[in-house]
Amino acid sequence: MAERAALITGASSGIGLAIARALGGDGYALTVSARRPGKLESATEGLRTDGIEVQSVTANMTDEEDVVGIFARHREAYGRLDVLVNNAGVGIGAPLEEIQTKHLDMQLEVNLRALIIGTREGLPLLREAGAEHGKALIVNTASIAGKGGQAWLSIYAATKAAVLNFTQSTHHEVGSAGIQCTALAPGFVDTPMTEFAKGQVPAEEMIQPADLGEAVRFLLRTSRNCHVPEIVFTRPGERLDTP
Ligand SMILES: NC(=O)c1ccc[n+]([C@@H]2O[C@H](COP(=O)([O-])OP(=O)(O)OC[C@H]3O[C@@H](n4cnc5c(N)ncnc54)[C@H](OP(=O)(O)O)[C@@H]3O)[C@@H](O)[C@H]2O)c1
């Protein structure tokens, strides 16, 4: 059995894949999950090529059974969960008057509902890890958009504000059980999600996905007495209210 294991959602590209690479590089056995099987498989193959022990589970985070299934597969494979990264997310911009209900539902389901269900499903094994070594970790990917309102991204920003708050509540509830909870709140990161913005902010000027992988490493390398509730990432000179 692996000495440490992690489960990362939304790990087929961008931030989730970078966190998977960081944790895998540090010896964690991984379950990685995403929606599109081909993209997830090629990301998983890349991790394996780097010598990382990894299984992939295709799941649509809008479907509760799929979400629950990721955790069942993880338990079968590794029998322990030290780090849970609730990272899958989707952002669909629209003026308020043009919000489509299906896009509202999708963002609420993927960004918030699935993260809550995933936390519920992960907690039994995380509690065991917390009791064993006092430093189990839940990382929730929020956004700088959650720190303040965001024109044309109002639903996305609202879901991410809720993620920040849910992370705090989770910490209040399970912190004393050796489970730490941290929200990551980045501005523009160079991933497929920010393709729409690369005309205004060149990719090479954006925060790099590996920066968030390093942040998760940092969270795990501090002592069990050190809890970091939230990390905000901005580009140099960027204002907090402009994601
Ligand atoms: N990039 C940024 O500037 C930025 C800033 C702040 C916060 N974030 C947050 O960071 C997280 C990762 O985003 P990213 O920037 O790394 O973008 P990304 O490369 O597009 O990654 C998004 C991941 O989420 C998965 N996903 C999306 N919808 C899903 C669904 N319905 N079911 C299962 N998986 C789904 C995607 O899988 P498929 O491709 O298979 O759908 C992919 O693996 C998100 O929560 C995002 O909101 C990003």
Please mark out the parts with pLDDT under 50 across 5 or more consecutive residues, or reply none.
Answer: none
What number of domains? 1
Main sheet record: 7 strands, parallel
Strand order of the largest sheet: 3-2-1-4-5-6-7
Mean of pLDDT: 97
CATH topology: Rossmann fold
In short:
The chain is an alpha/beta fold.
Question: In terms of topology, how is this protein built?
Answer:
Layout: E1 5-9, H1 14-25, E2 29-34, H2 37-49, E3 54-58, H3 64-78, E4 83-86, H4 101-133, E5 136-141, H5 154-174, E6 179-186, H6 209-221, E7 230-233
Parallel strand pairs: 1-2, 1-4, 2-3, 4-5, 5-6, 6-7
Helix pairs in contact: 1-6, 3-4, 4-5
Bound molecules: NADP nicotinamide-adenine-dinucleotide phosphate.
Structural account:
The protein is of the alpha/beta class and 243 residues long. Helix content is 44%, strand content 16%. It has a single domain (5-233), classed as 3-Layer(aba) Sandwich (Rossmann fold), CATH 3.40.50. Strands 3-2-1-4-5-6-7 form a seven-stranded parallel beta sheet, with helices on both faces. The chain is globular and about 50 Å long. The structure holds NADP nicotinamide-adenine-dinucleotide phosphate.
